[in-house]
Specification:
CATH superfamily: dinb family like domain
Structural class: mainly alpha
CATH class: Mainly Alpha
Number of strands: 2
Number of helices: 9
Number of domains: 1
Strand content: under 5%
């Protein structure tokens, strides 16, 4: 497999680029992606067996199981970041080591139904929050400790809509290549 092939396997929809300006219609579109994601993901993986769940989506990549658990971990962290930014002035958020979390036993061996249920419930709450944010709240920010960049909440909505589609594409593309769907 060539480097180009590996890159397209790693970033099947391209790398995320933070939008500088964001319209209200874009925010609504991204919230819809976040809202529909749990059902779209569950429909894709509901009939996967353990062998399929334990298949990496690319060489040296995470397994489908790890990707699903990663999404629960990542989206929980994002939800908390929204809460911090909405209740504190420019908080410095807590970063975490995604790769280390994905290597823990709950991510490597845990039942995917746990994270699918968690994602469904979390997204339910998250979407209620997102749909009710004002323009002023969408402009609130937090500071990422590694990059020291200030990130607006409307940009974070864009990032997590991309994140949903990015990891869905990992699993969906694998399922198509392996003819599981």
């Amino acid at each position: 497999m060539t480097t180009i092939d590996l890159k397209s396997l790693q970033y099947p929809i391209g790398k995320f680029e933070i939008p500088e300006t964001v319209s209200a219609s874009e925010v609504k579109k991204w919230i819809k992606v976040i809202e529909r994601f749990p059902y779209k993901l569950e429909n894709l993986v509901e009939d996967f067996d353990d062998l399929q769940l334990d298949t990496p989506y690319r060489p040296n990549g995470w397994t489908v199981r790890q990707v699903i658990h990663h999404m629960a971990d990542s989206h929980m962290n994002s939800f908390i970041r929204f809460k911090w930014a909405l209740t504190e002035d420019r908080p410095v958020i807590k970063a975490y080591f995604e790769d280390r979390w994905a290597a823990l036993p709950d991510s490597k061996d845990g039942e995917v139904e746990w994270s699918l249920d968690l994602i469904e419930s979390l997204h339910g709450r998250w979407v209620v929050l997102l749909k009710n944010l004002t323009e002023t709240q969408l402009a609130r920010t937090f500071i990422h400790p590694q990059s020291e960049k200030e990130i607006r909440l409307d940009q974070l909505i864009a990032m997590y809509a991309w994140h949903c589609e990015h990891h869905f594409a990992h699993i969906n593309n694998l399922a198509k290549r392996e003819e599981w769907v």
